[in-house]
Design brief:
CATH architecture of chain B: Alpha-Beta Complex
Number of strands of chain A: 5
Order of helices and strands of chain B: EHEEEEHEEEHEEH
CATH superfamily of chain B: Molybdopterin biosynthesis MoaE subunit
CATH topology of chain B: Aldehyde Oxidoreductase, domain 3
Largest sheet of chain B: 4 strands, mixed
CATH class of chain B: Alpha Beta
Number of domains of chain B: 1
Number of helices of chain B: 4
Radius of gyration of chain B: 16 Å
Strand order of the largest sheet of chain A: 2-1-5-3-4
Number of strands of chain B: 10
Distance between the termini of chain B: 31 Å
Largest interface: A-B, 18 and 29 residues
Shape of chain A: globular
Distance between the termini of chain A: 36 Å
Largest sheet of chain A: 5 strands, mixed
Strand order of the largest sheet of chain B: 1-6-8-2
Structural class of chain A: alpha+beta
Oligomer: heterodimer
Structural class of chain B: alpha+beta
Helix content of chain B: 25-40%
Helix content of chain A: 25-40%
Shape of chain B: globular
Number of domains of chain A: 1
CATH topology of chain A: Ubiquitin-like (UB roll)
Chain lengths: 84, 150
């Protein structure tokens, strides 16, 4: 399944990545699954992308870690927001 | 257009004049301006870096404004949020709320800035002592936002 992943805030800086297109394997059905799959890329990924350290949005709406994913979704992963 | 996200500074007077000219029925305009402070947790801040999620940030702010308009009689709202590198004392955010009477303008303005803090995708990084730190959502901001649910 093709997913566009965007990174903002701390994870973007530490992973040195703002966005990428990924081909997620079949077992990735939710935002939480996507996070677990990305964590497998290595130590810094596992460290940055824990459920307690990042939040997510699907297609520009805040979502939780149980939210189902569809083909071509835009998923953003970011540290807690701090505007204003 | 009621929401703008920009690198450049803004002029509150210019924005207020635009809101005034909306209607002769505007009887009150409440202004909130957020500034960059030079101290954070008692450490000197050299500058801050602000980033946002283009597309979602505008959408989220417009949603907050719509919610405010459902609760109070607002004749006009203007929100400007700056992004990029900012220094102490720089203006970072502005919320203007116009109404026939001040009560609606005060409440609408406060509601919008309280929700902006917790529901709009912006991130601040503070640079201090040659190191930098991403600011996390403050519990006090979440508490302020929750007051509007009671």
């Amino acid at each position: 399944m093709k997913i566009k992943v965007l990174y903002f805030g701390r994870p973007s800086e530490n992973l040195k990545l703002t966005d990428e297109l990924v081909e997620a394997p079949a077992q990735v059905k939710t935002t939480g699954d996507l996070l677990v799959w990305l964590q497998e890329r290595g130590e810094v990924w596992a460290q940055e992308l824990t459920e307690s350290r990042v939040r997510c949005a699907i297609n520009q709406e805040f979502a939780d870690w149980k939210a189902p994913l569809s083909v071509n979704d835009e998923v953003a992963l970011f540290s807690p927001i701090s505007g204003g | 257009m009621s929401v703008t996200i920009q690198h450049e500074d803004f002029d509150v007077g210019t924005e207020m004049s635009a809101l005034r000219s909306l209607s002769n029925n505007v009887g009150a305009i409440v202004t909130f301006v957020g500034l960059v402070r030079d101290l954070s947790d008692n450490t000197l801040v050299e500058n801050i870096y602000v980033e946002h999620y283009p597309g979602m940030s505008e959408k989220a702010l417009n949603k907050i404004i719509e919610q405010a308009k459902l609760r109070w009689e607002l004749l006009g709202v203007r929100v400007i949020h700056r992004v990029g590198t900012l220094g102490p004392n720089d203006q970072i955010v502005m919320v203007l709320a116009a109404s026939t009477h001040r009560g609606h303008a005060f409440s609408g303005c406060e509601f919008i800035i309280d929700y902006l803090k917790t529901d709009a995708p912006f991130w601040k990084k503070e640079v201090k002592n040659n190191s930098s730190e991403w600011v996390v959502t403050r519990d006090s901001d979440v508490e302020r936002m929750k007051r509007w649910h009671r």
